[in-house]
Every structure is written in structure tokens, then in C-alpha cells.
Amino acid sequence: MLLSLLVYGIAERRMRASLAEQKKTLPNQINQATAKPTLRWVFQLLHGIHCLKITTQHQTEQVIEGLTPLHQKILLLFGKTVENIYQIPLKNTRSM
């Protein structure tokens, strides 16, 4: 349990630091801008993203569906690795 709370706390701290560094905010539960959302709320905001694995003959392709501009904004807070995992197009990363 302690390890889980430690990882959760570190992730929340990094997300908030990234928000502050980029001078961005996210909507809270009543749709007002906040620079210090909880990680639990951010997870709820990410609801609706789907990962599909499409297999045709001998090839498997992974497709991410349901990414809204808000989802992309949140995912970009977590760095380049997450950007690559979620296949966020490079053209969208600069406009947010």
C-alpha cells in the first residue's frame, strides 16, 4: 500500500509540475480552470480512450481511438514516452 501511495504521489507531483512549467490548466469538476488537479480527477478525464488491436493475416496493428484535444493535452504532460504510446500526431503537440 505504501508503495502504491508513493507512486501515486510522485505521478501527481510530476503532472502538477508539468502544468506549472507549461503554464497550463485543466478543467476541474465544475469546469473551472485549475493548475492543481488531483491525479484521480485526471484519470477520470482520460475516460473514453480505447486501444484496438487489429489483426489481418499475419500482421497486428494497434490503434488508439477516442483521443480528444483535452486527452492529448493531458497525455502530453507526461512526456515523450506517453506521447509515443498514445500515437499523438506531432502536428497537434505544438498547438496545445
Notes on the protein architecture:
With 96 residues, the chain is an alpha+beta fold. It has two domains: 45 residues, no CATH class; 49 residues, no CATH class. The protein is built from five helices and four strands; from the N terminus they run αββαββααα. It has a two-stranded antiparallel ribbon with strand order 1-2. Strands 3-4 form a two-stranded antiparallel ribbon. Strand 3 and strand 4 form a beta hairpin. The termini are far apart.
Alpha-carbon distance between the two ends: 36 Å
Q: Radius of gyration, Cα only, in angstroms? A: 15 Å
* Largest beta sheet: strand ordering: 1-2
Low-confidence stretches: none
- Structural class by SSE content: alpha+beta
Count of discrete structural domains? 2
Percent in helix: 40-55%
The global form is globular
What does the average pLDDT come to? 89
Task: Give a nutshell description of this structure.
This protein is of the alpha+beta class. 50% of the residues lie in helices and 19% in strands.
List keywords for this structure.
alpha+beta; two-stranded antiparallel ribbon; about 100 residues; 4 strands
Give the SSE map.
Elements: H1 2-22, E1 26-27, E2 33-34, H2 39-45, E3 50-56, E4 59-65, H3 69-76, H4 80-85, H5 90-95
